[in-house]
UniProtKB/TrEMBL annotation:
Pfam families in the record: Acyl-CoA_dh_1, Acyl-CoA_dh_M, Acyl-CoA_dh_N
Domain Acyl-CoA dehydrogenase/oxidase N-terminal: from-to ranges: 21-131
Single Gene Ontology MF annotation: glutaryl-CoA dehydrogenase activity
EC number: 1.3.8.6
Residue ranges constituting the Acyl-CoA oxidase/dehydrogenase middle domain according to the UniProt record: 136-226
Pathway(s) where this gene product acts: Amino-acid metabolism; lysine degradation; Amino-acid metabolism; tryptophan metabolism
Protein name per its UniProtKB record: glutaryl-CoA dehydrogenase (ETF)
Domain named Acyl-CoA dehydrogenase/oxidase C-terminal: residues: 239-385
PROSITE patterns (alphabetical): ACYL_COA_DH_1
GO biological process, any: fatty-acyl-CoA biosynthetic process
Keyword Oxidoreductase among UniProt keywords: yes
Keywords: FAD, Flavoprotein, Oxidoreductase, Transit peptide
Length: 392
């Protein structure tokens, strides 16, 4: 652990940096510098035009952000805490950036890494870690979000091949992906398939006119008699355990990431309150404003401590699914409240893209929904507490 207070975290009220190593602080600084120099000057324009900046993917790869927590096969092999710190800094820029890293690494790459054959890992993971191959993860369907067991996408055997037919929706990166991990019902239960997106019968359509996650890519996948060889099947998992293990990787990143959006919202409001001069005095000098700022700062500290604790548990091999649900539920809920409260300090100016809080708040509405809604995570925790499943 580091003994000296960090110079980078001037709002670290309770010295959380004392719990980080110098190497972790240095990694965080590198990602923060990337966000400050590449993302912040451009994010308002990207968001306004609903553009995901694919040109920054090579730099993300050079920073070791793709498949960051995976080891071997050209992957960076960083710790869970390293990945969390990077997720926090990325989402301080925009949720869409952290989502890209999450879809690529925690979902698509993790599916191959956890459940694929050695041949599949060797074929795909190096290019994905380098950012030259983009992946997506096809689980959610138009009528099947929180209940993936009801998915209608089906893969049938035809000789040695599989023929895949179905419809997926809210699939990140589908229109720029080179490979899709698609989960489908089969006569043997739910299985995962590696689907090159240039396979005949595969179509990706962009979901447009979004009010949230505008600097990100969400799509529909339409699969019409997509013929795949036997080698496309992920051989090492059957049933919903396969996608759920990947979703837990993504949910873990969210626990950290949303605190980045919250912190950026708070810092935007704090700086504004020092320079805005209603009634000939700084807005920050009013008691009600200070109460808002203090409440935001305290919740950010608590949420970051929770994320760090879960990261240490993950690195120790002790992290349980219900603990991830605690983090995702609590931190996302608090991050939205912080972003909304920060917007109130900005007044009417806060509805413009000159300031980040309302953009973060809009994005967080999506983050609150994907990888498990509040209701789903509440019931996961409720099941753990009571021993009684209440999903049905």
């Amino acid at each position: 652990m580091t003994d000296a207070p960090s110079q980078i975290e001037h709002d670290d009220l309770i010295d959380i940096d004392f719990l980080l190593t110098p190497e972790e602080i240095a990694l965080r600084g590198r990602v923060r510098s990337f966000v400050d120099t590449v993302v912040r000057p451009n994010i308002a324009d990207w968001y306004d035009r609903a553009v995901f900046p694919v040109e920054i993917v090579p730099e993300m790869a050079r920073l070791g952000l793709l498949g960051m927590h995976l080891k071997g096969y050209g992957c960076p092999g960083q710790s869970a805490v390293d990945y969390g710190l990077a997720a926090l800094e990325l989402e301080a820029g925009d949720s869409g950036l952290r989502t890209f890293v999450s879809v690529q690494g925690s979902l698509a790459m993790s599916a191959i890494y956890k459940h694929g054959s050695e041949d599949q890992k060797n074929e795909w993971l190096r290019g994905m870690a380098a950012g030259t191959t983009i992946g997506c993860f096809g689980l959610t369907e138009p009528d099947s979000g929180s209940d993936p067991a009801s998915m209608k996408t089906f893969a049938r055997r035809d000789g040695d091949d599989w023929v895949l037919t179905g419809h997926k929706r809210w699939i990140g990166l589908g229109t720029i992906a080179h490979v899709a991990i698609v989960w489908a019902q089969t006569d043997e239960g739910v299985r995962g398939f590696i689907v090159p997106t240039n396979t005949p019968g595969f179509e990706a359509k962009l979901i447009e006119q979004k009010l949230s996650m505008r600097a990100s890519i969400q799509t529909e996948l339409i699969l019409t008699d997509v013929r795949l060889p036997a080698t496309a099947l992920l051989p090492n998992v059957e049933g919903l355990r396969g996608p759920f293990e990947c979703l837990n990787e993504a949910r873990y990143g969210i626990v950290w990431g949303v605190m980045g959006a919250a912190r950026d919202s708070y810092e935007s409001a704090l700086e504004y309150s020092k320079t805005r001069l209603p009634f000939d005095r700084p807005l920050a000098s009013f008691q009600l404003t200070q109460q808002k700022l203090v409440d935001m700062a305290v919740e950010i500290q608590k949420g970051t401590l929770l994320a760090l604790h879960l990261g240490r548990l993950k690195d120790a091999g002790r992290l349980q699914p219900h603990q991830i649900s605690v983090g995702k539920l609590s931190n996302t809920r608090e991050a939205i409240a912080i972003a909304r409260e920060a917007r109130t300090i900005l007044g009417g100016n806060g509805i413009t893209l000159d300031y980040s809080p309302l953009r973060h708040a809009n994005n967080l509405e999506s983050v609150r929904t994907y990888e498990g809604t509040d209701e789903v995570h509440t019931l996961v925790i409720g099941h753990h507490i009571t021993g009684i499943p209440a999903f049905r």
